[in-house]
Recover the amino acids of this structure.
C-alpha cells in the first residue's frame, strides 16, 4: 500500500533497481565486448555506408555529398565487372576443386588405413601457412628461370608448355587459383573426414544388402548424409572467395594488365593508392552485399535441412 | 572413381576395423592416389626448406635434393639483415595481445549470451551474427581514418584493437556454443550455495569450458599469426610489421639473394608449422569445431 502511493519517479527508480539487480551480471559481462564491437565494427560499418554517398578523397575536411553517383558509376565501371568475373571464376573453381579432391581423400582415408595420421598431417599442413608464404612459395614454383614447375615440365619433355605463368594474362588467374586450391584442400578434407564419422554404417550395410553397388552407396547414402557438412564448406569457400585478397595481392597485385584483379584488390587500390575513398567505400559494400546474401542463403538452406 | 568404389567395398567387407595393408589391386590404387597427393602437398615445403640452405646458383641448378653444402648463414642473415628478429617479436606481441583479448572478452560475452538473463538477447545475437557474415572490407576504409583520428595508426594498437574487436563475433558464437552445452543446473546449485555470478562463472562454469577455450586459442593464434590485410593497411612502419607482412616486404627488398629469401620464408612458416606438428590433433579438432559449431 505504501509503495503504491509513492510518487512516480520513486516507482521508476524501484523498477530500475530491480531491473539492474536482475540483469547486472549480464550487462557487465557483455559491456566490454559490446563497446569494442560498437566502436570498431558497427560505427565504421555505418561510416562505410555514409562515405559511399560522398566523393571524399581522404584528405579534405569537407565530405561532398554526391547522392547515388558512386552507385551509378558501378554499372559503367568496366574494371569492376572484369574483377567480378574473376571473382566468379575464382569462387566456382575454388569451391568445386577443393571439395572434389577433399572428398576423394576423405573417402580414401575414411576407414583409417595404415599411414592415416601421416596422410592427414601432411594434407592439412598447407592450411596453417599464411597466404603470404603460400603466395611467395608458389610465385617461386612458377618462376620462369628457376621455378620447379617449368623444370618439371622440361624434365618430362613438355618444354613447349613452359612459360612465365604469372606473367601470362591467359594463365595468371588460374595459376594463382591453383596455389589457393593447394592451400584450401586440406581444410575441406578435414571437415569431410569429420563428417564421414557420422555417416550411418547401418544404412550403408542395408544398402549393400539391397544390392547397391559402391558408387550408388556413395552417391545415395553417404553424400546425402554429408549434406550439412557440404553446405557449411560451400558457404565458407564462397564467402572467402568473394573477399579473396591476400594471395592475389602478394603474387600478382592484380596484374598483369588486370588479369587477376578481383573486387578486393580493386577496392584496396581505389582506397589507398588512388585515394578515391568514397568510391572505395561503395566497392567495399558490393563485397559486403555479396557475402551477406551468400551467408543468408546458406543459413536458410541449413535451417531447412535441419527441420 | 575406381579407387573410391574400391575403398567402399573394402570398408564394408572388412567391417570398419583397421585393415591390414594387403596387396590387392584396389588397395594399391588407393595408396597410389594417397601418395601422389602426399607428394603434391609436401613438395613445396621440402623445396623451400632445402633451398634455405643452398646458394642462389645451386637453387637454380639443383632444385631437388639436399644442399651440397649447408649454408646456415642464410638463416642467420635473414634473421638479422632481413629483420626477421623484429618481425617475429612483433608477431609474438600481436598474437599474445589479440588472443588474450579475444579469449577473455568472448568467454564473458559468450557466457552471458548463453546462460545469463540479458534483455534484448536476440537482437544482440543478430548484431554479432552480422559481424560474422560481413568481410573485413566492409569496415576497412572508415576504420583506417578512425584509427588515424584517435592517433592509434602506426602503433601496435592499430592492429591489436581492431584485431580483437573484429574477431569477437566468431569467439562469442564459439564460446556461447560451448557454454550452452553445459548443464545449467550446476550454475543454479552454486547460486543456491550463495556464490555470486562472477564466482559461478569463474569457478564453476569456465573450468568446464576448457575444451572450447583451447579451440579458440589455437584458432585465434593461427588467424592472427597469418593475418595480412589488416596490418597491411594499419601498420606501415617496418619496425611494427608482423611476420606475415614483413615477409612480403623482405621478399621485395632482396630479389637476388635467393638462398636468403628461402631462409626468410622458412623462418616465417616454421613457428606455426612446428606448433601444428606438435599439436596437430588439437589444430584439426579446433578447425573442425570452429567450422561446424559456429
Amino acid at each position: 500500500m505504501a509503495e503504491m502511493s509513492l510518487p512516480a519517479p520513486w516507482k521508476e527508480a524501484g523498477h530500475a533497481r530491480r531491473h539492474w539487480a536482475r540483469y547486472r551480471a549480464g550487462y557487465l559481462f557483455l559491456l566490454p565486448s559490446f563497446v569494442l564491437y560498437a566502436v570498431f565494427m558497427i560505427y565504421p560499418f555505418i561510416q562505410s555506408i555514409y562515405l559511399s554517398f560522398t566523393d571524399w578523397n581522404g584528405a579534405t575536411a569537407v565530405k561532398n555529398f554526391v547522392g547515388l553517383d558512386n552507385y551509378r558509376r558501378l554499372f559503367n565501371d568496366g574494371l569492376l565487372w572484369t574483377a567480378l568475373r574473376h571473382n566468379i571464376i575464382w569462387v566456382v573453381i575454388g569451391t568445386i576443386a577443393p571439395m572434389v579432391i577433399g572428398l576423394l581423400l576423405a573417402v580414401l582415408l575414411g576407414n583409417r588405413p595404415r599411414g592415416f595420421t601421416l596422410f592427414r598431417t601432411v594434407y592439412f599442413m598447407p592450411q596453417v601457412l599464411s597466404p603470404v608464404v603460400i603466395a611467395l612459395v608458389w610465385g617461386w614454383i612458377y618462376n620462369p628461370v628457376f621455378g620447379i614447375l617449368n623444370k618439371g615440365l622440361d624434365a618430362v619433355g613438355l618444354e613447349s608448355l613452359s612459360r612465365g605463368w604469372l606473367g601470362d594474362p591467359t594463365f595468371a588467374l588460374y595459376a594463382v587459383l591453383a596455389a589457393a586450391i593447394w592451400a584450401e584442400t586440406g581444410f575441406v578434407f578435414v571437415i569431410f573426414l569429420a563428417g564421414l564419422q557420422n555417416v550411418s554404417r547401418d544404412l550403408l550395410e542395408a544398402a549393400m544388402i539391397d544390392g547397391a553397388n559402391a558408387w550408388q552407396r556413395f552417391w545415395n547414402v553417404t553424400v546425402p548424409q554429408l549434406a550439412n557438412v557440404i553446405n557449411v564448406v560451400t558457404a565458407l569457400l564462397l564467402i572467402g572467395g568473394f573477399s579473396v585478397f591476400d594471395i592475389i595481392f602478394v603474387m600478382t597485385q592484380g596484374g598483369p594488365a588486370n588479369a587477376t584483379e578481383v573486387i578486393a584488390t580493386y577496392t584496396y587500390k581505389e582506397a589507398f593508392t588512388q585515394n578515391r575513398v568514397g568510391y572505395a567505400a561503395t566497392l567495399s559494400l558490393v563485397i559486403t552485399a555479396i557475402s551477406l546474401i551468400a551467408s543468408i542463403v546458406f543459413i536458410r538452406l541449413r535451417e531447412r535441412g535441419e527441420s | 572413381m575406381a579407387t573410391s568404389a574400391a575403398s567402399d567395398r573394402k570398408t564394408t567387407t572388412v567391417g570398419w576395423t583397421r585393415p591390414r595393408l594387403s596387396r590387392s589391386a584396389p588397395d594399391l590404387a588407393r595408396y597410389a592416389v594417397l601418395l601422389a597427393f602426399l607428394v603434391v602437398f609436401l613438395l613445396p615445403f621440402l623445396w623451400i626448406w632445402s633451398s634455405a640452405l643452398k646458394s642462389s646458383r645451386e637453387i637454380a641448378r639443383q632444385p631437388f635434393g639436399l644442399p651440397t653444402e649447408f649454408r646456415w648463414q642464410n638463416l642467420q642473415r635473414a634473421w638479422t639483415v632481413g629483420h626477421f628478429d623484429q618481425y617475429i617479436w612483433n608477431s609474438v606481441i600481436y598474437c599474445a595481445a589479440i588472443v588474450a583479448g579475444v579469449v577473455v572478452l568472448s568467454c564473458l560475452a559468450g557466457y552471458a549470451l548463453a546462460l545469463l538473463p540479458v534483455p534484448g538477447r536476440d537482437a544482440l545475437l543478430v548484431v554479432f551474427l552480422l559481424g560474422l557474415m560481413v568481410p573485413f572490407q566492409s569496415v576497412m576504409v572508415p576504420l583506417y581514418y578512425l584509427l588515424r583520428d584517435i592517433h592509434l595508426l602506426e602503433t601496435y594498437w592499430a592492429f591489436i584493437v581492431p584485431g580483437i574487436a573484429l574477431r569477437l563475433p566468431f569467439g562469442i558464437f564459439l564460446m556461447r556454443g560451448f557454454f550452452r552445452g553445459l548443464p545449467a543446473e550446476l550454475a543454479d546449485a552454486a547460486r543456491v550455495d550463495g556464490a555470486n555470478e562472477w564466482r559461478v562463472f569463474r569457478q564453476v562454469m569456465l573450468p568446464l569450458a576448457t575444451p572450447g577455450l583451447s579451440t579458440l586459442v589455437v584458432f585465434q593464434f593461427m588467424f592472427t599469426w597469418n593475418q595480412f590485410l589488416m596490418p597491411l593497411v594499419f601498420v606501415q612502419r617496418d619496425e611494427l610489421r608482423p611476420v606475415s607482412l614483413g615477409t612480403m616486404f623482405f621478399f621485395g627488398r632482396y630479389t637476388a639473394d635467393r638462398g636468403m629469401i628461402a631462409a626468410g620464408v622458412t623462418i616465417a612458416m616454421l613457428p606455426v608449422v612446428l606448433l601444428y606438428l606438435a599439436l596437430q590433433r588439437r589444430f584439426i579438432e579446433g578447425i573442425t569445431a570452429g567450422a561446424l559449431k559456429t
